[in-house]
Design goal:
Number of helices: 29
Number of strands: 22
Strand content: 5-15%
Helix content: 40-55%
Largest sheet: 6 strands, parallel
Shape: globular
């Protein structure tokens, strides 16, 4: 009997893909992906065995049209441990078992109350269902599987093994996807989504392009310009340092974005690293950073990857359900990125949730993270309730996956083990790894604002303050408060009003910010016009704006410092006139997390004359970490990875993926057809030969994230619809009622229950 992996519409099977060929191709692809990490043999074995369950008459009948459910993902998982023998190989074989079992439905838990847990599936498997011919058609090698990793102390082993398992999984699912895609593209006569050049092949052109861009600014003028030049030169001189963990502590306005890019390019050249990944907390900064990088490096080098559009539906917990309801061909419709681009600009959410994910679509990219320069811009924004597992993942990428990671911020979080109690879970070895020249001196030399504490202020008082300043920025803690303030200011007749919120899609925010910058320019350059911007915190971390005065609702010291970075950014105004006013909003109290941070700031503030100095910020973060304590791993994620040398692993991959959520509200996207680019991309959804990943890439800056219940209400009332669901599934939810999107305030939904839900969302 002939065995096939994939079928076509031809009943004579002349163009079907043989199972042996598919397994060999996936094994080779997975090995190639794993080799740079040192896991080539393990990934190859996973590739050979992943579709072993297709060696059954039942699955071959399914390819011929049968609708009976067939679980083809358990067979290889059940047999791999027997092939590997004992010792270290047995440990890696168990990781491979998770990967094979999850290559359709997602990585399973070893044990839970569901049938889909790995232990139950392995127990229920009967090898007799397999045709014995598989042993003649493939030759899997299950020896010498353990990579030469540094697993550290005994307590670190489970977490390190768990990430190793995800990396094997990544190599497998990416190789499986690519071979399946290549097969169907060949049959249907179409090309794949895109191929990216390697960073190494481009560096000879990218480095001169970077130098030309920096030279275009001319000779540095003024103190700020000279300091930016000093910082850039010093950072680039450090590029020869061995790969690993770095900090880059530069005050806002010191040019850290371009300095970190210069370091990344030089460092990648010196050490042969494969790509540059720039991770950013907010989509607003992604737009800005991606534009800068494209200007410097070129349009075809940079992948801008938001988290906006993905098939985020929870997979069924029944192992057979995933195999029977989603064919290999159907999964090609998913909007997935593999991060093969030389430069990736993405969100913290996309990077870190992928490192703790279980779904193939999220994990596919992980092996491409290895051997990269990763710049964590605004590192202080990493969610505190997930800090322990997040910091451990950062450390592991540097320790065993060849990554250089730059913690880049004006307000450096206290991760240096020297500033924390011995054995603290956030402690990283950062001694001697600061890239900037003398951060305390830079903070003094780049001091540009004066903090003013105003106490409680009503919205009426805030609007009165705004009315006296033709150019001012006001930042509050929620979308609801920002909208209310904007409407009240508009009713009061203030001119030059601008509202910036995540209710607006990213491409629209980009236009708004360009208009704001135009108004803030000097009069001789066409600016000097009224500009009163009311926004949430999305405006403060990394957005390039320069206001004469700023008001900031009470928050943590790190947020205050970031807000201060939008005031007198270029240092052209007197420090004493550049006021950052901190106020309490009793009618709009901050969320409990921010309220706790204001208390932390209050407890340490008396000991420092300058609250924006590095020493004050270090003391503040120490206060925060002391107060939060074990809530730095609030979800107890580390407890979900256990390893027992005698009995093996007990990893809860699926449970962890559900618990590790950087954005706890679980927002979902609505696409707004704001211009011809978006309209054409939506029209192109009907063409099945255009991959969903390519269309998602075009539409990601036209999405607004809304609460799931709100989108469900919009769908029920036909204000939003899934476009081409037969071809694309529930990925592309498009606004059908244009009047719900208003130019000044963005997307509104008029149900009070869901508006109330917004008040705690930044």
């Amino acid at each position: 009997m002939a065995f096939y992996a994939h079928s076509t519409g031809n009943r004579d099977r002349r163009d079907w893909q043989s199972l042996a060929n598919h397994l060999a191709a996936v094994a080779g692809g997975a090995e190639a992906f794993g080799e740079p990490i040192g896991i080539g043999k393990a990934a190859q074995l996973a590739g050979f065995l992943h579709d072993l369950g297709k060696y059954t008459p039942a699955f071959q009948a399914r390819l011929a049209g049968s609708r009976d459910r067939v679980d083809h993902s358990t067979a290889g998982a059940a047999l791999v441990r027997g092939l590997a023998g004992r010792g270290d190989d047995a440990v890696i074989a168990e990781l491979i078992a998770y990967a094979i079992a999850g290559h359709h439905a997602g990585l399973p838990d070893m044990a839970n109350a569901e049938y889909a847990c790995l232990a139950e599936r392995l127990k229920a498997f009967d090898e007799a269902v397999l045709d014995a011919s598989w042993r003649a058609e493939i030759t899997p090698n299950a020896q010498a599987l353990m990579p030469t990793f540094d697993f550290g102390d005994k307590a670190s082993v489970p977490f390190r093994l768990a990430l190793l398992g995800r990396m094997i999984f990544s190599c497998l699912v990416d190789a499986d996807f690519k071979d399946t895609e290549a097969f169907y593209c060949s049959v249907e006569g179409r090309t794949v989504d895109r191929e990216w050049p390697s960073l190494r092949s481009l560096l000879a052109d990218l480095l001169p392009a970077f130098d030309r861009h920096m030279a275009s600014f001319g000779k540095p003028r003024g103190q700020v310009g000279r300091l930016r030049g000093e910082i850039l030169a010093h950072v680039r001189d450090r590029a020869t340092e061995p790969p690993g963990l770095f900090t880059l502590t530069v005050p806002t306005g010191g040019g850290k974005t371009l300095a970190s890019l210069g370091f990344a390019l030089d460092h990648a050249k010196v050490h042969g690293l494969r790509r540059i990944i720039y991770a950013i907390p907010f989509t607003a900064i992604i737009d800005q950073t991606a534009v800068i990088f494209r200007q410097v490096l070129g349009e075809d080098v940079v992948l801008e990857h938001h988290s906006a559009i993905e098939d985020d539906r929870r997979q069924g917990r029944n192992a057979g359900e995933a195999d029977s309801t989603r064919s290999d061909k159907n999964k090609l419709k998913l909007a997935m990125e593999d991060w093969a681009a030389p430069v990736v600009v993405t969100t913290n959410v996309q990077l870190f949730e992928s490192l703790f994910a279980a779904r193939p679509s999220r994990c596919r990219k992980l092996h491409n993270i290895a051997n990269s320069v990763i710049v964590l811009d605004e590192a202080q924004t990493l969610p505190r309730h997930l800090l322990v597992p997040t910091v451990k993942a950062i450390d592991e990428l540097a320790r065993n996956y060849g990554c250089s990671i730059v913690l880049c911020t004006a307000t450096q979080p206290a991760f240096d083990e020297r500033s924390l109690p011995e054995g603290h879970p956030l402690g990283l070895k950062l001694e001697g790894r600061e890239l900037a020249p003398d951060p305390p001196r830079l903070a003094r030399d780049l001091k540009r604002v004066t903090l003013r504490h105003a106490g409680a202020m009503s919205d009426e008082a805030l609007i009165e303050e705004l009315s006296r300043e033709p150019q001012a920025l006001m930042i509050v803690n929620s979308r609801g408060h920002a909208l209310a303030l904007y409407r009240a200011a508009k009713a009061a007749g203030l001119d030059g009003l601008v509202h910036l919120t995540t209710r607006q899609y990213a491409a629209h925010r980009r236009v708004i910010l360009e208009e704001v910058r135009s108004r803030l320019k000097p009069k001789k350059e066409g600016g000097g016009r009224p500009c009163r911007l009311i926004a949430t915190s999305l405006v403060e971390a990394g957005i390039d704006l320069d206001f004469p005065k700023v008001w900031r609702a009470e928050a943590g010291l790190d947020q205050i410092a970031q807000a201060a970075g939008r005031c007198n950014r270029e240092g052209k105004r007197p420090v004493e006139d550049s006021l950052v006013t901190i106020f309490a909003a009793p009618d709009n109290p901050p969320p409990s997390e921010i309220k706790g941070l204001t208390g932390d700031m209050g407890r340490m503030a008396d000991g420092f004359d300058d609250l924006l100095a590095p020493a004050a910020l270090e003391a503040y973060f120490g206060e925060v970490y002391w107060r939060v304590g074990d809530r730095l791993d609030r979800e107890r994620i580390l407890d979900d990875f256990n390893f027992y040398p005698r009995s093996g692993t007990d990893f809860a991959y699926r449970t962890v993926a559900e618990k590790y959520r950087m954005i706890e509200s679980g927002m979902v996207p609505v696409i707004v057809e704001g211009d011809e680019t978006a309209q054409k991309a939506v029209r192109d959804l009907k063409y099945e030969n255009i991959p969903s990943g390519a269309l998602a890439r075009r539409l990601q800056t036209y999405t607004v994230q809304v609460p799931p219940k709100a989108r469900a209400l919009l769908l029920d009332n036909q204000h939003v619809a899934f476009i081409e669901p037969e071809k694309r599934g529930d990925q592309f939810a498009v606004l059908q009622t244009p009047s719900l999107y208003q130019e000044d305030v963005g997307l509104l939904w008029e149900n009070a229950d869901y508006l109330k839900l917004e008040t705690n969302i930044i």
